[in-house]
Amino acid sequence: MNPDEEVLAKIEQIKQGGPERYRQRAKAEGRLLARERLARLLDPGCGVEDGIFADAADEGNPADAVITGIGKIHGRTICYMANDPTVKAGSWGPKTVEKILRIQETAANLRVPLLYLVDSAGARITHQVEMFPGRRHAGRIFYNEVMLSGLVPQVCLLFGPSAAGGAYIPAFCDLVVMVEGHASMYLGSPRMAEMVIGEKTTLEDMGGARMHCEISGCGDMLVQRDEEAIDTARRYLQYFPDHCDSQPEVVPTIDAAKNPEELAHLIPTNQNVPFDMFELIEHLVDANSFLEIKALFAKELITGLARLGGRVVGIVASQPKVKGGVLFVDSADKGARFIALCDAFNIPLLFLADVPGFMIGSKVERQGIIRHGAKMIYAVSEATVPKISVIVRKVYGAGLYAMCGPAYGADATLALPTAYIAVMGPEAAVNAVYYNKIMELQGEEREHFIRERREEYRRDIDLYKLASRLIVDAIIPPSRLREELINRFAVYASKHVTNPRKRHGVMPV
Amino acid sequence: MHVIIAPMAGTVSQVLVQAGDAVTSGQDVVILESMKMEIAVQAEVSGRVKAVKVSEGAFVDEDSILLELE
Prior knowledge:
By secondary structure, chain A is of the alpha/beta class.
């Protein structure tokens, strides 16, 4: 064997991964092998890989259970790490950790997105002193993730477990895609939960993909197969620039999937009757460009990426069809996080507001609706990207603030003719202001008084009156909204605003 | 048995089905009023209404049982 052949043979051997029986099992379960995942993720033929001989001279775990390298997606450079679950269940040894740290450093140096393809049983406890507590040990992975956060996009594809400390890899990523039935995230296993706190539970119920995407909010997108997770990541990255100082790519415009001229028929004039905001979005954005984030979590608020006239925008939209579009603790968190994501990567924000306000009552107060709502308002305030708020219908109370009302640095507040801006609806307002008077009156006299006051209230917040006072910048016929937004986002592309210099704010959490 | 619960606190403004009715997944079965909005509650599965547990005008808390399906 000549030297070339010898090296290549060794590399080929390592690339096989773990024992055949584990590879067969993965196949039988419908999973891709680690290198098959990378082959689907990356453009063919341009990648480089480091540390393939990790651990080769010691215990001989192929690549020490993680593949790290640089490749391209749609022609753009990215860095990646991919656990190999056929090698020691993808667990972390000292070299695994060092390889992950190095690829993080590379992503920072090159200022390119970093993808974590996670499928790992966690740390090898037998090696804990060499990989858990020290300066360049596991803790540094999460530290690096925090340092990379907002510098370059970080995406986690969760194909299998992400246990204990390892669960913090997805926790610090911008996007977590989870494969249903295979992916899981938990600090203590069901066995540990039973031992330590006496709780009987299952992996799916406590840390499964669906639970995290619907209830905990730790997962952003639920998919059915490895292939779908990978395709989702490739699509997601097309909306993002390489790093925080570059701009998302502008592509040729595509007509909306539904005729914008028909928008007016979609929006009920009765403010209390729900409609489906997804329909409105389909009438506005370039066809097939809407990528929803956190579709299964806090559905009363819609968040997603789309293109308008070929430009990327982040959409934050009330969903009147779910819980009346009222903002709750989880929806406020969802909004805050998405706004921060878009602002970090120069993605302009479009708010579509039809919101009766934040939920009231003792239950939500105990959950801290005020501090959660404050989080969303904080994120809206801090965002310096172009921001347009469209008042679709009613916008009451602090709902106006959370949906980027005029006071929140909106480049424009646009109103549809159905817009209605007030502290609260006329029924509640008249009751609040005239409660004592109403109580003094009886029968027809009371009804008459209430009717009169409500009419007076409506006249006071009439849309044309609000426009004449410059509360809204323009009233837009629904059929012209798409065109108006495309024009405005093109104009606002040169926006350059900075917040006051300081170390950092003290964000409500 | 499958139960349909209130998605949020509010007042029952309309019960659109009665015991014995067949319902299909996605069908509106109860309209709540909350935060001045009409909140349509849908059946998540198809089945037959076994019992209606609330009456119009009643206040319900989040997660209260509205209907039982079988």
